[in-house]
Amino acid sequence: MQRSASRKRVAVTGASGLIGSALVRSLRADGHDVLRLVRRPARTADEVEWDPERLYVDAAGLVGVDAVVHLAGAGVGERRWNEAYKKEIRDSRVLGTTAVAQALASLAEPPEVLVCGTAIGWYGDTGSRAVDEDAPAGTGFLPSVCVEWEAAAAPAEEAGVRVAHARTGLVVAREGGAWGRLFPLFRAGLGGRMGDGRQYWSFISLHDEVAALRHMVDTPSLSGPVNLTAPEPVTNREVTAAMGRVLRRPTLLTVPAPALRIALGDFAQDVLGSQRVLPGRLLETGFDFAFPTVDEAIRAAAR
User: Fold this and answer.
1) What percent of the chain is predicted at pLDDT more than 70?
2) Among 114, 65, 73, CA closest to 90
3) pLDDT > 90 fraction of the chain, expressed in percent and rounded
4) CA atoms within 13 A on the CB side of 218
5) Are the C-beta atoms of residues 53 and 41 closer than 8 Å to each other?
6) 177: left (phi over 0), alpha (psi -120 to 50) or beta
7) Confidence of residue 179 (pLDDT cuts 50, 70, 90)
């Protein structure tokens, strides 16, 4: 089958989420055809049914796609962590990735590339030590999930699909995600540092996140892990100061570590942990960040 060198047919899971919906808008604005994987019978020509819990994808609906961007998964910061929700986090990622990878492997002519959204949780707590894609997995719940998550894409890779893992940091957006919860608090003058504020937050603007995913689709040399983080990670204390500067609000409050542990359960250790992650592969392949600093990323999100 002859595929267009410019216009692409791209299938997206998690298309209704923060990143997925922005990616779909961006692709369609540039004239690409987008198929959305939905967890119900398809109702329109741009939908494909799937059920990750049953490892089911309507593979016939993926015939002729050039790329798949797999972003689906239970929100890490959506609810207080307990054992049941940790299982949901793990299963939604590992089973979903397995379903997509097996479906692509079953096609007579699989797509050129599968971009799998994973997370910088792979690295665990790195303290003040900067790490890039060559760093090994850390220890703890999120690193173990990320290891299984990325390994689940193996069937697609074995079928000859270029597989790239988008290890995403904290996405700066007011529409959702962890940062979306910060904006109302800081606008109300209730924002402040978390814990001692010395932990590094590796962030990326929503604009750059979408651009980086598209860069991964379009760059044949990119396979394996790719860190989707801005080139200048900052501490939580610096994030707090930047939010105050951009939103012109006081940031005098502090959320003590014990309060975070009560509110967030096991997730608190990741909020209080430090991840100083650098986007080595993006920079090596010429990716240009539109909003490389935290002030620029916050201003872009606050518009």
Assistant:
1) 93
2) 73
3) 79
4) 17
5) no
6) left
7) confident
Residue 85 has what pLDDT?
A: 85
Are the C-beta atoms of residues 54 and 102 closer than 8 Å to each other?
no
- pLDDT for 259 equals 66
Task: Kindly indicate the confidence band of residue 4, based on its pLDDT and cuts at 50, 70 and 90.
Answer: very low
Contact between 166 and 218 (Cβ < 8 Å): no
d(CA 15, CA 22) in angstroms, rounded, equals 8
Q: What's the gap between Cα 101 and its chain centre?
A: 18
Class of domain 9-170+205-229+278-288: alpha beta
Diameter of the chain by CA atoms? 61
Model confidence pLDDT, tens digit, residues 255-281: 777 766 665 565 566 667 899 999 999
Q: Is the pLDDT of residue 215 over 90?
A: yes
Q: Are strands 162-168 and 224-228 parallel, antiparallel or unpaired?
A: parallel
Where residue 78 falls among pLDDT bands split at 50, 70, 90?
low
Cα(211)–Cα(12) distance, integer angstroms:
15
Model confidence, pTM? 0.94
Degrees, nearest 5: CA angle 169-207-62: 85
